[in-house]
Design a protein that fits this description.
Number of strands: 13
Largest sheet: 5 strands, mixed
Distance between the termini: 44 Å
Order of helices and strands: EHEEEEEHHHHHHHEEEEEEHEH
Helix content: 40-55%
Number of domains: 1
Number of helices: 10
Shape: globular
Radius of gyration: 21 Å
């Protein structure tokens, strides 16, 4: 008997979200696309997901969910590593990963950066994709043969455009970049710790924020840091070449600055504190700069 095809694809894993929940096992969230709903309470199973986000649809209509399956396997491997990191830091020990564990972490970190719809939509908006298809049709009509109005309407139909754009996104995610992976593998890790129990980090629909010095943007440059929160009081970034594992304690101001950066580049945020999410809501989605994982 065939297994049902998974439809609800989380781009921020539930296993990561659950590390941020409050005493009611839920999260406070704000979505700038639904501003009229304000700040509301919800559960991880309902947050940071999109229907069939990683489902590739063939011309025959067959649905391939292998990417979603691959992400689920990766999350299962990364889950105990995140627990290991958090447990070590709670005991004031620097987390040490084996070579195999580090390879898993680097892959999880990179995909968590790449796989989110916010980044996809900025790199390839619906409007930009439609313009590209229209240009391709015009070129074909000019250089190969005339394209009828019916054919044009078929290729530019909303459902056709959505499926083709999503297929392109999936193909991009399946592609491998040895240069980026080597850049990550060659660097140590930095753990940023929130020491004030009254402060906490949030999760966002674009959960990795890149911090650079001046015009430097490449991950191969150790002046570039990219932070991913793994708990309300801990974030991780690629560190320094030959530097091993480092730990920094965040001031209250730095925690606020990091949360603002997550909020500004994302369309949705979530966290354990209602007051914190309310304070960040006016900034959600206000910065549309593209922060792609450059090499």
């Amino acid at each position: 008997m065939n297994r049902p095809i998974p439809k609800r694809h989380h781009f921020v894993p539930e296993m990561l979200q659950k590390r941020f929940v409050n005493d009611q096992a839920g999260l406070w969230t704000y979505d700038s696309r639904r501003a009229e709903s304000g700040v509301r309470a919800d559960m991880p199973k309902n947050l940071f997901l999109e229907g069939h986000l990683y489902t590739h649809v063939a011309k025959s209509g067959a649905k391939d969910v292998s990417l979603e399956v691959d992400f689920s396997r990766l999350e299962a491997l990364a889950d105990p590593l995140i627990t290991k990191m958090i447990d070590a830091m709670s005991k004031n020990r620097r987390p040490l990963l084996t070579a195999d564990e580090r390879a898993v972490w680097d892959e999880f970190f990179l995909q968590q950066w790449r796989r989110v719809p916010d980044l996809r939509d900025e790199l390839m908006s619906v409007e930009a994709y439609r313009d590209a298809i229209e240009e391709a049709i015009d070129d074909f009509s000019k250089n190969v043969r005339p394209v009828s109005d019916g054919e044009r309407e078929k290729y530019l139909a909303a459902d056709k455009m959505k499926s083709a754009r999503n297929n392109l996104h999936i193909t991009t995610l399946k592609s491998q970049s040895g240069i980026i992976r080597n850049a990550l593998a060659g660097r140590g890790l930095i753990f940023a710790r929130v020491t004030n129990p009254r402060k906490s980090l949030i999760l966002a629909s674009r959960p990795v924020v890149k911090v650079t010095s001046g015009a430097v943007k490449l991950l191969s440059d150790e002046r570039v840091h990219a932070w991913l929160p793994i708990s309300p009081d801990l974030a991780v970034s690629p560190g320094y070449y030959g530097g091993g594992t480092a730990v920094v304690d965040l001031t209250d101001g730095q925690v606020r600055h990091m949360n603002l950066a997550f909020a500004e580049q994302s369309r949705q945020i979530a966290g354990r504190s209602e007051a914190l999410i309310k304070s960040l809501a006016p900034y959600v989605g206000t910065n549309t700069d593209i922060t792609r994982p450059s090499r």
